[in-house]
Write a structure and sequence with these properties.
Largest sheet: 8 strands, mixed
Number of helices: 0
Structural class: mainly beta
Distance between the termini: 40 Å
Oligomer: single chain
Number of strands: 12
Shape: globular
Radius of gyration: 14 Å
Strand content: over 45%
Length: about 130
């Protein structure tokens, strides 16, 4: 069964850090590009970061550039999102998803100058930044 599971969310003070994990089962995650997304209450889901399957090239939304870092651990079949200097506006449910290069999945997001489709999604993990 193909599955993505996010973990690592929680409550953190402004300026703090969290590391989110996106663990895959049922397939090899390194064969896919992986996106991180977030959705705050009353807002649309937005793309936060993306890591390519080929050379690990990473892209970031302007709002998180310089604060967030995406990486892979191939041995653990996991992608991480390190989030530093967190701000209250980072509060959201964070999701990871694997890229669908066929384009058949109609969840389109723009990363690195290209519109990409994402097929398999995790259930999300809550991140709350508050003092």
């Amino acid at each position: 069964q193909v599955q993505l599971v996010e973990s690592g969310g929680g409550l953190v003070q402004p300026g703090g850090s969290l590391r989110l994990s996106c663990a895959a089962s049922g397939f090899t995650l390194e064969h896919y590009g992986v996106g991180w997304f977030r959705q705050a209450p009353g807002k649309e889901r937005e793309g936060v970061s993306y890591i390519s399957r080929t050379d690990g090239t990473a892209y970031y939304a302007n709002s998180v550039k310089g604060r967030f870092t995406v990486s892979r651990d191939k041995a653990k079949n996991t992608v991480y999102l390190q989030m530093n200097n967190l701000k209250p506006e980072d509060t959201a449910v964070y999701f990871c998803a694997s890229e669908d290069e066929t384009g058949n999945s109609r969840n389109y997001y723009f990363f690195g100058g290209q519109t990409r489709s994402f097929g398999s999604w995790g259930q999300g993990t809550q991140v709350t930044v508050s003092s």
